[in-house]
From TrEMBL:
GO terms for molecular function: heme binding; molybdenum ion binding; molybdopterin cofactor binding; sulfite oxidase activity. The keyword Electron transport does not apply. Pfam families: Mo-co_dimer, Oxidored_molyb. This is Sulfite oxidase. Its cofactor is Mo-molybdopterin. The lineage of its organism: Bacteria, Bacillati, Bacillota, Bacilli, Bacillales. InterPro entries: Ig_E-set (IPR014756), MoCF_OxRdtse_dimer (IPR005066), Mopterin_OxRdtase_euk (IPR008335), OxRdtase_Mopterin-bd_dom (IPR000572), OxRdtase_Mopterin-bd_sf (IPR036374).
Length: 356
C-alpha cells in the first residue's frame, strides 16, 4: 500500500509473528537516518522478559581478577560515547532466497538505525581485570524460553571474541536517540556491536562473563551459523560481519509510474569500511550508472542514502537494480550465498515497475 504525500496516515511496523513478537520496519517510508523507536524492527526469540528496575545490578564475573557488581548509577557515571549504528537482523531479506529456507520470512525491513549512547564494554572489563588467557566474553540477556529443536529452557546468550569485546565502540547502551532505550529494544542496558549482525547486540543484559574457552551455547553453535549444504553441516562457519548491501526504497516493487522523470532512492550499508559507490541499472543489468551517494562519516557504522535521477519516456515494464561496493572492494553479488538457515542475504537489489 502506498500513501499520498498529504495523507495523515502514518507507517507502522509489518508483523511477521506475534508470539514472540517479530516485526519489521517499513523501510520504503523511512525518510532519514534516524529511525523512531516505534518503527524500529523487533526481533525476539522468546516472550519479553519481566524485569524489576528498582534494584538493577550488572555483574561482571568469570575469568577476571576482581568480579564486580555495577549499579545502574555506576554505569551512568562512567564516561560515555554516542555512535550512529545500523542494526540488521542476519535474516533480513530471508524471503528472497531461492530455494526457500525455513525461518522467519523477513522482507527488506529487518534493519533500522539510530544513535546509541552508552559506556564502552571495555571500561567495565578493565575495571574487573581481565586475566591472561581470556578468549571470549559471554553476554547473557534476561529473555528465555523453549526452543523447538531442544529440550528444556534456554536463555539468550552470545559471546564475542575478546578483541571485539574490547573494541572502544562496542558499548553497553542505555539511550537511543537521546532517550532511555525503550523496553522492547533492551532497556535498561543493551549491548551494541557495530558492524556485526544484530544477534550480537544482546538486549536486557543480565550478566557478563569472561571465559578462557570457546562458548558453545545454541545461539552460538546451532543458530547464527552459515550452513552451505542442505543435508549436512560440512563447511559451516559463524555469522559475524555484516555483508555489503543495499535496498531500493522508491519506487516500490510493482509500482505503476507515469512517463517522465523519477527519483530512484535507497540506502546502502556495510560491515567493513564505508560504502564507496552505488550503481543503478534500469534495464535489467544491461548497463549501469553511478548513483549519487550522500555524505557519510569516516567510521561507516550506519547506512548511507543514495539517489539516481531516471528519465523514462517509453511505456513498458522495467527492472531496476541496485548494487553497492564498499571500501574493501566487496560488491553485492548477482546471486546470494545460499545457506540452510537463510542468513546474510545481500544479492543485488531488484524491483520491477510498470510505466504507462
Amino acid at each position: 500500500m502506498t500513501y499520498p504525500l498529504n495523507s495523515s496516515v502514518k507507517p507502522y511496523l509489518i508483523t511477521r509473528r506475534l508470539h514472540p513478537e517479530n516485526q519489521e520496519t517499513p523501510i520504503q517510508f523511512i525518510k532519514n537516518d534516524k529511525i523512531d523507536h516505534q518503527l524500529f524492527y523487533r526481533r525476539n526469540h522468546f516472550s519479553y522478559p519481566v524485569l524489576s528496575y528498582s534494584n538493577y545490578w550488572l555483574p561482571i564475573n568469570g575469568f577476571v581478577t576482581t568480579p564486580r557488581l555495577f549499579s545502574m548509577q555506576d554505569i551512568l557515571r562512567f564516561p560515555s560515547k554516542t555512535i550512529k549504528v545500523v542494526l540488521e537482523c542476519s535474516g533480513n531479506k530471508r524471503n528472497l532466497f531461492e530455494p526457500k529456507v525455513f525461518g522467519e520470512q523477513w522482507g527488506k525491513g529487518a534493519i533500522s538505525q539510530g544513535y546509541w549512547k552508552g559506556v564502552p564494554l571495555r571500561t567495565l572489563l578493565e575495571l574487573s581485570g581481565i586475566r591472561k588467557g581470556a578468549i571470549e566474553v559471554v553476554v547473557e540477556g534476561y529473555d528465555f524460553g523453549k526452543r523447538t529443536d531442544l529440550d528444556g529452557i534456554y536463555t539468550y546468550l552470545r559471546s564475542l571474541p575478546i578483541e571485539k569485546a574490547l573494541h572502544p565502540d562496542t558499548i553497553i547502551a542505555y539511550e537511543y536517540n537521546d532517550q532511555p532505550i525503550p523496553f522492547k529494544h533492551g532497556h535498561p542496558f543493551r549491548l551494541i556491536v557495530p558492524q556485526w549482525y544484530a544477534m550480537a547486540s544482546v538486549k536486557w543484559i543480565k550478566q557478563i562473563s569472561v571465559i578462557d574457552s570457546n562458548f558453545t551455547g545454541p545461539f552460538q553453535s546451532i543458530d547464527y551459523v552459515y550452513y552451505p549444504n542442505k543435508d549436512n553441516n560440512k563447511n559451516a562457519f559463524p555469522v559475524t560481519t555484516i555483508n555489503v548491501n543495499s535496498t531500493i526504497q522508491s519506487p516500490l516493487d510493482l509500482e505503476v509510474l507515469n512517463t517522465g522523470n523519477h527519483l530512484i532512492k535507497g540506502i546502502a550499508w556495510t560491515g567493513r569500511g564505508v560504502i564507496s559507490k552505488v550503481k543503478i541499472s534500469t534495464d535489467n543489468g544491461e548497463s549501469w550508472a553511478n548513483a549519487k551517494v550522500d555524505h557519510q562519516d569516516k567510521i561507516g557504522y550506519g547506512w548511507v542514502s543514495w539517489t539516481y535521477e531516471w528519465s523514462v519516456l517509453e511505456k513498458g515494464e522495467y527492472t531496476i537494480m541496485a548494487k553497492a561496493t564498499d571500501s574493501y572492494n566487496r560488491t553485492q553479488p548477482a546471486s546470494p550465498f545460499w545457506n540452510r538457515k537463510g542468513y546474510g542475504y545481500n544479492a543485488i537489489d531488484i524491483i520491477t515497475v510498470k510505466v504507462e
